[in-house]
Amino acid sequence: MGLFKSSTPTPKPNLALQLASPKDQVFKPNDTVYGQVTLTTPIILQPQAIEVSLCGHSAVWLRTSHRHNNNTSYTHYRDNVPLFAVTQNLFSNPQPLNPGEEYTFPFSFRVPEGTGTSRLGGYKNDADERWTVHPHALPPTFIWGHRATFSSSIEPEWDNLPPNSASVAYAVTVRLICPDMPVEKTFSMRLGLTGDPGPLSCTAPILFQPPNIHANAPIGMIRHPKAFTLASSSLSGKDLSSIGFRQKLADRFSSDTPKLDFESAIELPNLLTSGSEFQFRSSFSVLTKSENVVHIPAITFKVLKLDLLDFTFVRAARDYGANSMMSGHHFREPEDLPTGAFSGYEKVDFDEKKTALNSIPDAKTLELEEVMVPGEKKGVGQAGSAEVWFSSRVPGFTPPSFRSFAISRLYRLRVKMEIQIGEKKFEHQVESYVQSLGGAPN
Hints:
Blueprint: E1 14-19, E2 26-27, E3 32-40, E4 49-68, E5 71-89, E6 102-110, E7 142-144, E8 165-177, E9 186-188, E10 192-194, E11 200-208, E12 221-231, H1 245-253, E13 259-269, E14 271-273, E15 277-289, E16 299-318, E17 346-356, E18 363-366, E19 370-373, E20 379-382, E21 385-393, E22 402-403, E23 407-421, E24 424-434, E25 436-438
Parallel strand pairs: 2-11, 14-25
Antiparallel strand pairs: 1-3, 3-6, 4-5, 4-8, 5-16, 7-8, 8-11, 9-10, 12-13, 13-15, 15-21, 16-17, 16-18, 16-23, 19-20, 22-23, 23-24
């Protein structure tokens, strides 16, 4: 028998929470969350309240280490922010509950649209555009970090939340408020001998994703041009097979070599949708050409690389209430976790990853069209421009982009294109900002 353990376990009520929706259902603003709370008790019980809450929470824990004289100490940075909380009391008329009976309490919540709160003064720089301190639309369920996993509790327990991680989580939580409920004496390294483990509670997480506000908006194409110069005998109309090494060498130094200045442009969409197809294009335009340019050979556009880049930014203020151990325990009550004004020091972390995408097709060859040439000597000649379209798809598991108080997610598209004209090859690489990547359509 342990020093602080009772020989006879104290009987406890059984509190259960069940949602009416499937576990993988994704909720959106103004959706209704239905469920019920079930309570059985082995003893006569008179609760003060049975509180059920729908809430959202953002959490960041960043940690640095410092070694001195063979000892390692740790500095902890934390951001612990409720996004919203809506609470109901399912036991508004307190009365005794009898053992052996099952009590059921239905509930429903409407999912809000935004945070409704502000974090002005909570960070080093309120104007940093990577995040926002103002009320904003609720961010999607999100997790970041190498070892981060969703906890069964909506409010992060710092003992279980991995360091250098961040999350946005939503859940329904029920708490049995019953001051007269018997409890066992327990021993905590943090609080010592205690007989108050807190209210009996349980939590059911839900998945949330905001609507794609740009779903029906016109997609803009961001143009990235680059100029090139081609000097080659292939522009004189010669067959490529007839241009030998000597001629190619002479082309590099002769002022009589046919010369073409052209522009390559890659145009990428500014709006993307998770799980949906998008299109992009590459174009060719003649800028200037010497008089001895007779014919521009076939042009091949080849996608060498197509990547979706995701950027995660997190920030957190110095947690002065934590100790210098790896766990960063708080020796006082958890209310002193950083949720208020900026503490004086801040750490920012940044993560960039890429997802390789497939291009359809990966290459395309075309001849410049024959068009009527205006001017005094009217006739037929080659067009001065051409374009080709490609398509790709954003993976369905891609989280939407968002900006919140301490966590943000942004995207870019990176394309490396090869343009081949005759025997010459040119490379054009661009990285384009994505204004918004919306969630997967319903």
